[in-house]
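During the reporting period the student researcher (J.K.) took over the structure-prediction task from the postdoctoral fellow and processed the backlog of single-chain submissions. One of the processed entries is reproduced below for the supervisory committee.
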Amino acid sequence: MRKSRFKEIVKRELKGPSLTVKWALASSFFIFVVFTIFAVITYKTSVNLIVEKEQENLERIVIEVTNRLSNAENELTVTEVYEAIKTPTPSEIGEYNQRTAVGTLLEMDNVIAELGAPALFLSIYDTNGLLLFETQKKPTVLLGKEKQEAKIETIGEDTGFLMIQPVNSKSARQKVGYVQAFYELSSFYEIRSRLLFTLILLECISLILSSVLGFLLSSYFLKPLKLLRDTMEIVRKNPQSDAHVPAIQSRDELADLAGIFNEMLDRMRRYIEQQEQFVEDVSHELRTPVAIIEGHLNLLNRWGKEDPEILDESLKASLQEIVRMKSLVQEMLDLSRAEQVDVQYANHVSNAKEVVYQVFNNFKILYPDFRMTLDDDLQNEVVLGIYRNHFEQLLIIILDNAVKYSTDRKEVHISISRSFNEFEIAIQDFGEGITEEELKKIFNRFYRVDKARARNKGGNGLGLSIAKQLVESYKGRIDAESVINQGTIFRIYIPIVKDIAIDVLETTS
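J.K. obtained the following structure tokens:
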């Protein structure tokens, strides 16, 4: 039934994007920013690392070739260049006395092998700038005679590292030639483009996936809010509806919110029912006294006002009904207030023994012909979670009934004790008693065990209803036991807030 009601809701047009869409967009934007930062850092780090690696490799090759050429005593020639850069003999590696000859040869071979790399253009010139050696057949000229560290330059249409290294003879201590190397970075730029494309592609994919995933997750986690909204919409359109938010098993704040909302709905509906019940009960109960007063006034209006006896009787009867109406209205108001205790008197407390003794002494004075007894089994004063006036009203209602329905044995017995965290008070009379069938109904509104006798004694049938409502509003209990012609005992249990004696000991210690 609830699902069908939810489907029947006419959706209200939102003023802006839904919370689900906002959440999805926010999460996607956050992931996009984080991934962008990660991609930029990765891109920059990778590019710089590759550039540094290529630069170090070029410098290592140029320095190694320069070191080999520096063994020449005179200006470099083609023959000396070829002799210098070929694979060295074991006699040429004496300076590497801390390594094995084989290891040194392999290291030299690797350097020479790198001269054949497609991206490397290495040229060797004499002091006049005449080309003596080149690794690739490509027109080149000496671009400078000063030492130049490897740096990125553009030559023609090619961009790469350009490095110029003068060659100085170790023996003659004079310049014998130049080494010029140009390392083209076209492969590096291709790798960089692919890396950039890959990162952009991954970022687009992550943005799409994060948007979809964010939407799904937000839809899942915000489903309770949607249920709350739908339930509110139902209640807005039909305040009398019994719709509730379906049970949410997430066990988080949203589940608590749904539970609180359902409790608020139940309380609101209970208050509405109480108001409706109040109006219905008052209108029903006031119908009889109003009819009686109207009858007497009609009688007086026709001819009774001329008869002193009828006039006196009608006035007395009307006044009696007015008094009963006032009593009825007051009791109905008391009942209505008792049903709303949790709103107005939630934090009020009262001392149990103090109130019981006060009411007990008052009744002893009011009914001197009754034998009132009080058994006190409490060693210390206890504080109850109930408003003092309501506690007094509760005791007065029960004691008043005990006195009212007593017969020949005019005796009322009261006992107070403690049962775990509850205060227990038992009020017993020795009157006419109540049958088992009627005992189940005595707390109903306007119910009277003997309607004729109750009306003669001034009862409206609301006292016990007020008492029960008061006790239950303060999380207590009330029950009754009765035996015909032997009497009735009412037991009331009210939660204890604290023990005064214990608090005093803790304070002094």
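The committee noted the following: The chain has three domains: 27-194, 277-343, 346-508.
J.K. will present the remaining backlog at the next meeting.
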